[in-house]
Amino acid sequence: MKLGQTLAAAIAAGAAMVLCFALRSTAMGPFQQLAHERPAAVYARGGERVDINTAGLEELMSLPGIGRARAQAILDDREENGPYLRPEDLIRVKGIGEGILEDILDQITTGGYADAQNTGG
């Protein structure tokens, strides 16, 4: 193949790619941001968050991914290690990893416990 033919083939391939992307973006439409919907469990509680420092077994079980065993593990950990200072501290409970924590983070609170602590010297 001669240089001219190679160059022509490269230009044709490039033009085909541009056309493909142009058609694809037109078919997909303009970017639209999806509205964030709060989980149904929060709506069921009237939009209130679950206070992981005071919630009982049933209330903890209302959180997605938290069944009876995990709820009991939260209660046991809270009793053994004291209250949670931040919602992210829930990760210290065996069986609650980053995935579950991420799913429930916007549905839980520590009830302002960290704000009540004397962190000054």
Question: Can you tell me about this structure?
Answer:
With about 120 residues, the chain is mainly alpha-helical. The protein has helices at about 5-30, 40-45, 55-60, 70-80, 100-105, 115, and strands spanning about 50, 110. It has a two-stranded parallel sheet. The chain is built from 6 helices and 2 strands.
Terminal Cα span: 80 Å
Bulk shape: rod-shaped
- The amount of beta strand, in percent, is under 5%
What is the helical fraction, as a range of percent? 40-55%
Q: Which helices and strands, and how do they pair?
A:
Layout: H1 3-28, H2 40-44, E1 50-51, H3 57-61, H4 68-81, H5 98-104, E2 108-109, H6 113-116
Parallel strand pairs: 1-2
Describe the structure concisely for a colleague.
The protein is mainly alpha-helical. 50% of the residues lie in helices and 3% in strands.
